[in-house]
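Sample pair:
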Amino acid sequence: MLRPRFKSSAGIAVRRHPHGHLQYLAGSLHADLSMAISLRVGAEVPASLFAGLLSRGADPDGHGYEEVVAAGYLRQTVGLAPAGLTRMAVPHPVTFEASQPLLATHIAIFSAVSEGELLWSGALRGVRYERQPSSRVYLPAFMLTVAKPPTPRTRS
């Protein structure tokens, strides 16, 4: 039996089915996000956070990414809750919808509803694939996790 191979088509990560057709992530997704450099060096986490979809992942310094462009697509407001000693999670479902397919491979959390600084980013993951990309991306509650930023050290 042939193993499915992962390939990129127009910058969008997809899976190639053994019969040759491309498949796109579908259904409930999850993501585990890494911190951008700005949080690693002690920047404070803003009170308002916004999740956005990326068609190209960010560099470790939080640059070089491409945000999804689709009619009706908007960043979503998210909150964070503790999820262990080193992780935090979004305690509510996050849903992105647009009037055209959302060709996303990554997700990120930003400091503002438009523009703003990228704080965390990571690849979208799932177990189900479909032949056509969807116009809806859904992450259930607690399935979007982020690394806790280091606590600022105080000098005494």
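The helical segments are 37-40.
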